[in-house]
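Why predict the complex rather than its parts? Because the way molecules touch one another can change local conformation, and only a joint prediction can capture that. The input here totals 748 residues.
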Amino acid sequence: MGSHNMIEWVYIAAVVAILTWVGADSWVIEKYIDEIPEDAETIKVTAQQWFWTFEHEDGTKEVGELHLKAGKAYRFEVTSKDVIHAFNIPFYTAMIDAVPGRINKVWFAPDQTGEFLIQCREYCGLLHSQMRAKLIVEA
Amino acid sequence: MIEHMRIFKYSVKSKSVGVGLTSGRLLSLILAPLLVASLIPILDSAFAAEAEQLINRRVEIWGLFYRLMAAAFVVGAAVQGVMAFVLFRFREKKEKPQEVVR
Amino acid sequence: MVLEIRKPRPLWEILFSTHHTDVALLYTVSSLIFLFMGGTLAMVIRSELLFPGPTIINDPSIFNRIFTMHGTDLLFLWLLPFAAGIGNYLIPIMVKYKDMAYPKLNAVAYWMIPPGAALVWLGWADIGWTAYPPYSIIRAPGPAADMWIFGLKILGLSSILSSINFVVTILKCKHPDLPIMKVPIFVWAMLITSFMILAALPTFTASLIMLYTDRLGVSGFFNPAMGGDPIAYQHLFWFTFHPEVYIFFIPAIGMAYELIPKFSRKPLFSYSSGVIALILLGLIGFASWAHHMFSTGLSFIEKTVFMVGTLAAVPMSAMHVFNWIATPWGGRIRFAAPTKWVYGGIALFFTAGAGGVVNTAIPLDFITHDSYWVVGHFHLFVMGTISFIFFGFMYYIFPFMTGRMYSERLASIHFWLMFIGAILTFVTQHILGLFGMPRRVYDYVSDPDLIIMNQIASIGAFMMGTAMATFLANMIHSTMKGKPARMEDPFEIGEQYYDYRRREPHH
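Output of the joint prediction:
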């Protein structure tokens, strides 16, 4: 390396430092999000072309709508009956693929009441754009 | 011509070390607050676990997003700024006939 | 002349030729035709998305086919063949050899493109260019998906054959007095790209076969009903296609290294740094594929490994950007069309890369995955960076191809409209993604924010469409009636241009 490359070394060191920080910060946040609280209530989510079905722990089934309580942690066990879909609640940053033959898990605790959008986030055919449901969070 | 180039190279060398260290220090100064900000979720989580509260998923995720975007914009401004400067400063200018200085 | 429209060579002479300049001409012209075909589809998509609900297309399945074809066409029929075309023009010249190592194989590799393209286009499939199962197996109607599979097989084979040619030409046919560390970096770029193709593509070839036998029902690799795993396909697919995005990009890096020292009238800042960065990028590019799969249910450790692999490739790109900014320092930059396109491309590259770093932060995948953020991100790469550099190089090589100069004024209009249009469209799409709009949708929630952003993105797209129309007009008009170029130095840089006698292969 020629002597006039010193500035390049400083630059690369800065880039590596910033990337290390990005990686570390992301790792820490992911670690917290990954841990599902033990007392989280399980909701079974089933995706199929082109609607959503939900089943609560007590056996109550809902189609196209999901009623949850604010302040409580919920664990979603997501699967599909046909092709790959993706269960997404944008407001609560919940996102996980619904894969047939597999159960994927995601969790969150809604802190705000109201109505929120549930949508499909993996291309699944003809009516992918219309595959929506409603999340209703009550106090 | 060659001597001219050699002088140029030497001045670039000592200058580049200085510029490199200065800009490195400046960048660290600007980005340091972000480093501090990323310690907050760790404290948050420690406090929440202690108080048996649930962490707010979306707050943590968006917080990370804003920190990374802030870093990206700072670095972006630095790099693109230097690039814009270089393109402007070293552009080809039309040569005007030089005035003879008596 | 390779291409002298007014005193044309017999068409059959070009079509049956095996000389590298003729094959290069075929690759370049074909890739430009496919660019315009894919671009037209983009205009249709953006027109549809001006308003929620059906706008100009009433049937969602047509929309699904349009975005599938848009992606498939532009990736496989524009980006790869254009790079192969420029490689064909320049590699023999740069290694000081008379032609490619295997001229007949070269022509064969090119001629596999029309049948592959025909199968893909006539198939008009709706599986998305990624063709994820189980949709592509159990729900996608045939023969569309089957024709897509076969078309891509042929195109993949064409890529592999031309890569073999490039590797042998560069390593074995290089002039004995030319050391490898003195060849232009463009040659290194094509060498590394070719090695990457040879390492990455066979996996996809296997995946296509497996997809096809699954569709026939005789196997169950990816079909859960038969004991298969759809996620296995994604691993195989992305193992090829993450390196593939570097395969798309590295030729453009090589072109930037060719243009910048010339137009700055200064030697490259650090040749060895450029070569090392390219080699490392080629290797590390294989270590990050599952960052496309963060939402499929990977374990925490898997996600961490791939995030690290992705971040590890960034310093190499930083080294290239450093080289590209340090080289013109102290120079005298000639601002012709190639310069504008290269630096515009580098500016957008940086934006794309910054967004990419956000993508690879695992928790942020919950916000960005399969949303318009990703669409904005990769378009800033393939259009804003790679295609911009390709356009710049197209202008640069235009005198070599035709012996004439293009209209600099039209080229300037082309550049500024595209640059502003690209920012309007693709940066807005990042924000659309943050607002939650999914990708591959023909309809979206009737939210005023989403509507206005979609309209801004569409306006940017129409600007780009207009710009491309001026490009087409410039190319056609200048080829026929452009001012004859000064072939020693058409851009008045003060340096020798390419050996233009190469353009007359039959004399």
